[in-house]
Amino acid sequence: MTMTDPIADMLTRVRNANSAGKPTVSMPSSKKLVEIARIMQEEGYVQGYDVIEGEPRATLEITLKYGDKKAKTIRGIKRISKPGLRIYAGKDELPRVLGGLGTAIVSTSNGVMTDRDARKKGVGGEVIAYIW
Fold it and tell me: What is the documented function of this protein (predicted)?
């Protein structure tokens, strides 16, 4: 069975594994999911990610990051643009998550990037998710 929204599935798996205190979480891989995982690693929300080649399809494995005494690095993840309602933002309307403390992941014509990078490059796009 095909999945309607693999990005929402990925974010839900990360959210659930983070709240359960799991060290890693795995899911079916795609180019866009790998890009989202790369951004999450660059912003310091996850420790790392690996693409494991498999027979039916590749698997994306994300290693979650915790602070002292199992303090969670990811406080919240929210899917913004959904298949039923796409949310786009121009270069001047890019959102700021928690006044700049969080990160908005934006899919632009120059690739998937954070809201800060999109502002620097002067491009807008589809607002995929908020993470804080």
Answer: One of the primary rRNA binding proteins, it binds directly to 16S rRNA central domain where it helps coordinate assembly of the platform of the 30S subunit.
